[in-house]
Amino acid sequence: MKLNDKVIVITGAANGIGKALAYRFAREAPKKLVLADIDRDSLEAIASELPMAEALACDIGCEEGVQHLVNSTLEQHGAIDLFCGNAGILRLGGVNTSDADFQKVWDINVQSHIWAARAALPSMLERGSGYFLITASAAGLLTQLGSLSYSVSKHAALSIAEWLAVTHGHQGIKVSALCPQAVESNMTAGSDGSVAGIDGMLSAETVADCVVEGLDSEDFLILPHPNVKQYFQNKANDYQRWLGGMQKLQRQFADLMPENVIDGGQELK
Length: 269
Hints:
By secondary structure, this protein is α/β, with parallel strands linked by helices. The protein contains eight helices and seven strands. α5 (148-168) links the parallel β5 (130-135) and β6 (173-178). It is globular, with a radius of gyration of 18 Å.
């Protein structure tokens, strides 16, 4: 997909990967960038630097917020060529994660993609074209040590991406799943030396470059960390051995996984 002259929506655009996507996409001369987040001030600051961008503050953790984002974009610009579902949050913790925390992670990391597709697909199908980019994380292909809710939600996000590609691919709908490991953002701040950066912490700008390349070739999996492909293959080829390796990694980093809660807002990841 070439991004020039396209109408593009980016959620979680106030920070991290979403912010980097906005600046990187702007270099491709899109028709319009609609930047969405709950952080209105940061959004407006970014939009003020990008002539083709506009800020739309909304909460994608509820269906009404996603519907407002999609409907407003369609009313103002007539189409959505690329919907980047990038917003996400992380909660550390295992089975004792509260239902309320788990639900919030689920709504933002999973339901937001379903709501986006529910709202945007009809117009895309009518035109016979449309593209969804879902930030699923390497955790969606592997797992997330220290966070049950994040691991489960990212597996689900990847499953949504797969299902959309399988079900609507013949109708002109394209899908990519962005699956990086650790990326410099508020979410990973202070995690140097932990499992988050075991294969290197990439800048959000590097990830954004990979996204443009992946969209250009319409790759389903966009893997800024090349190691992830091999890990995924190892998992498929010998599940038992992969589990043993992950158990070893869990023991290695167990002391660096406090049972606290991390939530920097929807702009993260």
